[in-house]
Amino acid sequence: MKSKSAAKATPNRKEITHTRIVETAAKAIRRSGYSGTGVADIMKEAGLTHGGFYAHFASRDEMLAEAARHAGAETIAVTEQLFANVPKEQRLWTLMNVYLSDEHTANIEMGCSFAALGSEMHRQAPEVRAASTQKIKEMIALIEAELSEQSPANARQDAMMIVSSMVGTLMLARAVDDKELSVALRQSALKHFAPKEN
Predict the structure, then answer these.
(1) What CATH number is associated with residue 130?
(2) Is residue 144 assigned to a domain?
(3) Is the Cβ–Cβ distance between 39 and 60 less than 8 Å?
């Protein structure tokens, strides 16, 4: 027999379904953008009926806010996992190389939500913007923590520069239809941030 706490920890059917909708929406917004993501399409992709949507969300914007929060959390989790498996002095340089790699550039659906959705954010509902903004702040704080030992006075400013450079470079690399330019943009950013030789 399960204890009350064990029973509480096990998600019920509605929670499992809710999570499936949010995960599906998080992929869809990165793939198709906010404006290209409809409720009916999300529910169909999640294997559910359109009519069941309002049992989980009061509005499309509420779903999009949760999806943005989930997508941003995935970006942060990948970064934390990378940091946990790389020596401290190599973490930021490794992150930049992974972030600006061919694989990440091509993998919009599962890649960084900030780069996939950044250009659309200003047109979103306040709750969607707030969810994304919070995750961007968390990403900056994660980078700031890595930099704080090297140069505590400039750690926050440098962290914002690194995050904005990675996200902006990836957005442009994906936007252009010239493969050589896409590669050159990413290589230029990596060259700029490359560790200086002693």
Answers:
(1) 1.10.357.10
(2) yes
(3) yes
Length of the chain equals 198
Q: Is residue 151 part of a domain?
A: yes
Helix (DSSP H) and strand (DSSP E) numbers for the chain: 10, 0
Distance CA 11, CA 35 (A): 31
The pLDDT profile of the chain, 198 residues, written as one tens digit per residue, is 444 545 556 778 889 999 999 999 999 999 999 988 899 999 999 999 888 898 999 999 999 999 999 999 999 999 999 999 999 999 999 999 999 999 999 999 999 999 999 888 889 999 999 999 999 999 999 999 999 977 778 999 999 999 999 999 999 999 999 999 999 999 999 999 998 765
Q: How many domains does the chain have?
A: 1
Residue 48 within a domain: no
Residue-range definition of the domain harbouring residue 164: 59-193
Flag whether 14 is in a domain: no
